Amino acid sequence: MSPTAPARGTKDLLPDDAPAWRWLHDIHASVAAAHGYQLIDTPVFEATDLFARGVGSGTDVVDKEMYTFTDRGGRSLTLRPEGTAPVLRAVLGGHLEQRWRPVRVHYAMSMFRYDRPQAGRQRQFHQVGIECIGDRDPCYDAEVIEVAWRFMTGLRIEGIALQVNTLGDREERLRYREALLAYYNPLRDSLCEDCRRRLDVNPLRLLDCTRDEQYVEGAPLLGDALGPASRDYFAAVLSHLDDAGIPYTRNQRLVRGLDYYAHTAFEFWHTSLAGAQNALGGGGRYDGLAAEIGFPATPGVGYALGTERLLIVAAAQDRAPSAELPAQLVVCSAPGGDMRQARELASRLRERITVVADLSERRLERKLREADRLGARLALLVGLDEGLVLRNLRTSHQQGLSGERVIEAVADELRRPADEAAP
Ligand code: HAM
Question: What secondary structure, in 3-state letters, does the chain show?
């Protein structure tokens, strides 16, 4: 592994990409906050058991994709592969549910999965998400979906398909599992290697296979295994979505890659993301997770969306803001000139515009060339014999100024179209 390249499956966020990054996070935080969700953040690593018990062994995430290591104290730790188990641990560990219920939190965090890197799939990636913890009512399932929907509407991304399903409760899923095994077991020898493994460890994931699609078609439906209580709950979620005007497709084949879901499960798909990476995000209800990780039973529902995938789609649709130039104006001190005055003018101007101060000993011509490269429109030359000079770097027009007139003259220049000379 070369020390001069980022580790496989990881990426740097370089300044040209930062405006799009900030744009996405600002919109997510403000849509979530407008619905009463508060910011939360959790440590990058956790006890391995949190994920082994929470996400579930038998899932690809736990069995194949975790970055697990032993620290110097002999503890087994794992870089978080997802945020729901850690956020639930933080909320219940901090007794937030004793203040109000449900607790509404949102997050933007990096996640780690040892996946095969390709477009839209990395080993370190990022998610924005929300969790609504402490109460169980179909209105919360719909609220969570609505926040995700409003967020993506805020990004002005088009072509998102919401897929919803219900996975029922534990008994119903066990019943369904039996039906699936009865259907798939006679087919075992013709299944792909992955599906043969799934048949033994996590039969629901058989529905997710793209290679054995022809068998998925004929598989029994989860809906047929549901009792009236689960059907009613799901019907109520859908009716809330109808009221909110959110279009969805009921997809009985939708299963999620993490084990903690019961009842509502959903995903947001986008056609421009290829194949197995077509999910922009997903989520659902996880009422059993709290007990699984050692807390009193507490219901919850939430979603997470992949930041990198959202940005791929936003860029393809030309929605994300492009690179920004670092400065509108550069204050250039003449070598040997008055630094104090240059500093003082730069800080006054920064109350209104972006300003770089070049107080180095380089020659003035070099400072001007550099200011032009930064994309600045103006340079303020300080410390020349003739006093202050404001130079328009597009037109090369210059004007001499007194200290009192600087703010006004700069504002005048910036108001004018970039290449129009001053009168
Ligand atoms: P997830 O479906 O495993 O759910 O991940 C959510 C999203 O994270 C995916 O749809 C995808 O956009 C992004 N993602 C996952 N893996 C990668 C990767 N290797 N590279 C790039 N992006 C990736 C969860 O993580 C649940 N915690 C969601 C949730 C929240 N459920 C309830 N609350």
Answer: CCCCCCCCCCCCCCHHHHHHHHHHHHHHHHHHHHCCCEECCCCCEEEHHHHHHHHHECEHHHHHCCEEEECCCCCEEEECCCCHHHHHHHHHHCCHHHCCCCEEEEEEEEEECCCCCECCECCEEEEEEEEEECCCCHHHHHHHHHHHHHHHHHCCCCCEEEEEEECCCHHHHHHHHHHHHHHHHHHHHHCCHHHHHHHHHCHHHHHHCCCCHHHHHHCCCHHHHCCHHHHHHHHHHHHHHHHHCCCCEECCCCCCCCCCCCCEEEEEEECCCCHHHCEEEEEEECCCHHHHCCCCCCCEEEEEEEHHHHHHHHHHCCCCCCCCCCCCEEEEECCCCCHHHHHHHHHHHHCCCCEEEECCCCCHHHHHHHHHHCCCCEEEEEEECCEEEEEECCCCCEEEECHHHHHHHHHHHHHCCCCCCCC
